[in-house]
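Marked as duplicate of an earlier ticket. Keeping the data here for the record.
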Amino acid sequence: MIRFISTEDTLPLRSRVLRDGAPPDSCYFQGDDSPDTFHMGYVSSQQGIICVLSCQPETMDGYEGLGYRLRGMATHPDWRGKGIGSLLLDAAIDHLTTVLMADYLWCNARRAAYDFYLHLGFSFLSEEFEIPGIGPHKVMFRRLG
């Protein structure tokens, strides 16, 4: 089941998947608690929250309209490759287009997730760059609507 969740609900998976087990309270992002930011999770009846993502309004230079940035997308290792992440991101995109009327979505994608985002209609906007302590990324973009 997909539902809106709190910032705090995202932290355990962010810690485990994105920050190599760092203390969950160190896994907050700037803007997490902004009233315009939303967080979604896929909840399994057996394991609780198994996939999370966050979206916050953030425009990109050179792009018209309302932009949102996808951040902190993480799927529990036991549930990867089962389509859960795609379902959750599709639900977020539906909310962005039908409720928030956003024009585009972008993210700093990890190298391991490039194919995932390409499969969901994103394209590359940058060359690969290193985020210190986290690893290689590329900016990826998807027009909405």
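See parent ticket for discussion. Strands lie at 2-5, 38-44, 48-57, 67-75, 104-110, 123-124, 129-131, 135-143.
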